Design the sequence.
């Protein structure tokens, strides 16, 4: 997409998320944004958050937050469902390691984690 | 290819027709599979619905089914039925990519439960279907492997994210397909391509082997040419799975048998919020005709209100992206998939792997999700959206006190043009305005063709039902189907 394309929805709205904040979020998310990606992402996040702001029209005092549909919906299945702690088959190591970018056959290999 | 197999592949095939052809030996499972592969070879360069074919696995299964038929064995319910699988479901015998560069060439070590169930029921699995990357999109334009074209109008999108699954059925490249939904991703493409798309109740169908996008919203559902086929597919897919702790213990009824019951006396709600500003006049007219046909069949049509509908997109994009930012943390270049070349440090490896491996929309959603979960914004965005999710769900629970099902348009417009919304993510998100509500509330829904626009584009009617109300919504959908 064209990062320089005009965007009516944001032009009238104050920039809620700054470029510095976008870079900080990217760091938290382990993403690297190029200089070209940054302004487009900032614009898009502000456009979407501008739409999300309409949730503030609603008074949600005392309304329970909902993380899973089961909690309100599936009557009779509200309790935690437990199972016996049993050993069961798992994938063979060689099948799993065959998909690893770098491995010694036993462990996954990565660049050094701690620099001296 | 026999004439019979060719006919099955090209003319809106159905599950009973495909299975009966195997049974009476007018077209063996092998002949049918070869006919579909020929159709795919001829059509896919234009449509781009398929990302990979699992020919070896499909033909081995077809041979097993043909051997059963030759011996005169009782055939399983989907014997010889050629089916395609959306590429966010794991399946051995072909790569599983989630239409992302970060999983290019990845060979999943196990089958999703839904994939395994279909094959156990006799289905022949043809291959993997294109979709938006990690199922994030409403037009199938976010695939790392190119957009899918709508077979009904090649300059139009097929909808998304399960665009390849919808297009394959619409174009006669499979009898049925599996799609997935996080926010409308089977119903909206079904509407755009003129086929049936079903969203089962959350927990009705196992998510094991579905590459996670937003775990509290993700579901698996079928695309078919007929409502009866959707019922037959659901019967195979539904049921508890020990590998998915959120899958329901609720008993699985015989959905196809329940289609025999008349719709007379059912109370159908018409929510005013789904017929307001922004609804294409031809879509409105088609859905109103569907309502008329239900009235004529003896349904009681009632005006209802779902007052929080306008907050659904905002709620959805906070919750879905928050969950996605956590779920997609696993793509880090360590255990599977893509890794950036010559990383200097671990952090450098993570960042460059993810930056080079993920497409723009996936990055946008990870950033948004990380933002709404970050310190100082969690209560204002994430917790607030979870509370509004409660209100949206209550809207439906209240409505289902007085109606058995709800009729709405599936999407505000017919299929839009390729490129029309790619520069404006918010405009793209609003294409899902009528479908995301059911995902948030966990209820079931189905899109069924209810007409064609003056430009020849399909229009879908959506029927929403209460939790585990699939039998009812399928009956209503079939009544609309029969009125066409």
Sequence:
């Amino acid at each position: 997409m064209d990062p320089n394309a005009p965007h009516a929805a944001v032009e009238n709205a104050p920039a809620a998320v700054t470029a510095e904040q976008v870079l900080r979020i990217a760091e938290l998310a382990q993403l690297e944004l190029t200089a070209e990606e940054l302004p487009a992402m900032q614009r898009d996040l502000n456009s979407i958050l501008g739409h999300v702001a309409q949730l503030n029209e609603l008074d949600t005092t005392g309304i329970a937050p909902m993380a899973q549909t089961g909690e309100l919906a599936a009557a009779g299945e509200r309790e935690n469902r437990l199972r016996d702690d049993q050993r069961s088959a798992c994938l063979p190591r060689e099948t799993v390691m065959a998909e690893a970018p770098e491995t010694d056959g036993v462990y996954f290999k990565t660049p050094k984690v701690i620099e001296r | 290819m026999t004439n019979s197999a060719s006919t099955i592949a090209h003319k809106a095939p159905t599950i009973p027709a495909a299975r009966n052809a195997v049974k009476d030996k007018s077209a063996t499972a092998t002949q049918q599979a070869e006919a579909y592969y020929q159709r795919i070879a001829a059509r896919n360069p234009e449509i781009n619905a398929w990302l990979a074919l699992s020919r070896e696995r499909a033909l081995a299964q077809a041979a097993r089914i043909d051997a059963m038929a030759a011996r005169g064995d009782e055939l399983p319910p989907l014997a010889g039925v050629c089916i395609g699988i959306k590429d966010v479901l794991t399946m051995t015998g072909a790569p599983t990519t989630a239409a992302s560069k970060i999983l290019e060439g990845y060979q999943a070590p196990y089958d999703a439960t839904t994939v395994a169930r279909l094959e156990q029921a006799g289905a022949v699995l043809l291959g993997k279907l294109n979709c938006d990357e990690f199922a994030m999109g409403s037009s199938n334009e976010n695939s790392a492997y190119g957009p899918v074209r709508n077979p009904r109008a090649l300059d139009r999108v097929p909808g998304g994210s399960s665009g390849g699954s919808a297009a394959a059925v619409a174009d006669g490249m499979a009898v049925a397909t599996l799609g997935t939904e996080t926010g409308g991703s089977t119903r909206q493409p079904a509407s755009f391509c003129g086929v049936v798309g079903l969203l089962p109740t959350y927990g009705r169908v196992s998510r094991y082997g579905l590459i996670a996008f937003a775990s509290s919203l993700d579901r698996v559902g079928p695309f078919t040419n007929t409502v009866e086929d959707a019922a037959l597919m659901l019967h195979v897919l539904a049921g508890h799975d020990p590998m998915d702790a959120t899958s329901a213990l609720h008993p699985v009824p015989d959905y196809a048998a329940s289609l025999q019951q008349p719709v007379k006396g059912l109370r159908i709600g018409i929510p005013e919020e789904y017929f307001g500003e922004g609804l294409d006049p031809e879509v409105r007219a088609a859905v109103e005709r569907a309502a008329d046909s239900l009235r004529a069949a003896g349904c009681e049509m009632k005006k209802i209100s779902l007052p929080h509908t306008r907050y659904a997109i905002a709620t959805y994009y906070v919750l879905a992206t928050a969950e996605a930012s956590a779920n997609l943390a696993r793509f880090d270049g360590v255990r599977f998939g893509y890794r950036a070349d010559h990383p200097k440090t671990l952090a450098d490896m993570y960042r460059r792997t993810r930056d080079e491996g993920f497409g723009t929309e996936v990055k946008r959603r990870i950033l948004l999700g990380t933002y709404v979960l970050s310190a100082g914004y969690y209560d204002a965005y994430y917790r607030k959206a979870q509370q509004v999710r409660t209100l949206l769900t209550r809207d439906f629970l209240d409505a289902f006190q007085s109606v058995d099902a709800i009729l709405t348009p599936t999407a505000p417009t017919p299929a839009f043009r390729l490129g029309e919304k790619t520069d404006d993510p918010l405009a793209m998100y609003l294409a899902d305005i009528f479908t995301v509500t059911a995902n948030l509330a966990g209820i079931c829904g189905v899109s069924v063709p209810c007409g064609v626009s003056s430009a020849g584009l399909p229009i879908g009617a959506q029927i929403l039902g209460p939790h585990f109300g699939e039998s009812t919504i399928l009956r209503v959908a079939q009544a609309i189907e029969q009125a066409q």
User: Anything to note?
Assistant: Chain A touches chain B through 61 residues (CB under 8 Å). The CA atoms of residues 16 and 94 of chain A lie 49 Å apart. Residues 1-15 of chain A have pLDDT under 50 and may be disordered. The two ends of chain A are 43 Å apart (CA to CA).
